[in-house]
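Appendix B. Chain record.
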Amino acid sequence: MDSIDITYIIECAHKGNELPFTTFFEHTFQKLKSKLFSLTKSKDDSQEVFIISMQKFWDRFVINKEEPPHNSIGYIYMMCKNAWLMQKRNKANTMLSIEDSYEDQNSVQIDLQSNSIEDGIDKEDEELLKHQALAEALKLLSSKCRSLIENELDSDRQLKDLQEEFGYNNYQALVQAKYNCKKRLILKVYEVITQLKNQKKLKV
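C-alpha cells predicted for this chain:
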C-alpha cells in the first residue's frame, strides 16, 4: 500500500471507521509473516512483535496524527525488528527493564539498570530508589497488569498461556493489553520516583 492508501486509512480511523485499518493490519501481517518468522523463529513471537508494533503505529499516526511514512509496510517491519531486539534484551536482563521506543529520537524509556537519577542522590541511594519505585508502581497496577508484566520474567510460561486465564478473546487483544500495561507502569514509576525524591528532600 502506498502513502495515499495509508493516508486514507488513517483519515477513516480519525472519523471512527476502523475497518480499513483492520484490513491494513491483516494485509500487512500476511506480507511480513515469513520475514517475521525468520527473525523470531517463533509464530507466537512473530505475532506479538507485530501487534506491539501496530499498536505503536496506531498511537503515532492515528492518535498523535504524525505524518505517515511513505513505505508503511517497510516502516512497520523496522518497528517489528526493534520490538524483537527489545524483547530479547528484556529477557536477558535479570532485572525488569521497560522500554517503549520508536525508530526516531522520540522515545520514552525506563531502564532500571542504567537510568540515572540526579538531584544529588549518591549511587547506592539511587539504586535503592529505583528498586523501591518499581515495587511501589507495580502495586498500583491491577492484578492483570502485574501478571502480564511479570510474565516477562517467567521464561517457563508463554504469554499465550494467559489468554484463556484472563478471558481475552484473542492473542491480539492480550498483547495490546500487555503493551498498555507497560505504558501505565512507566507513568507510575515516574510518579513514584518524584514522590520518593520529594519525601527524601523533606527529611533533609
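Further analysis of this model is presented in Appendix C.
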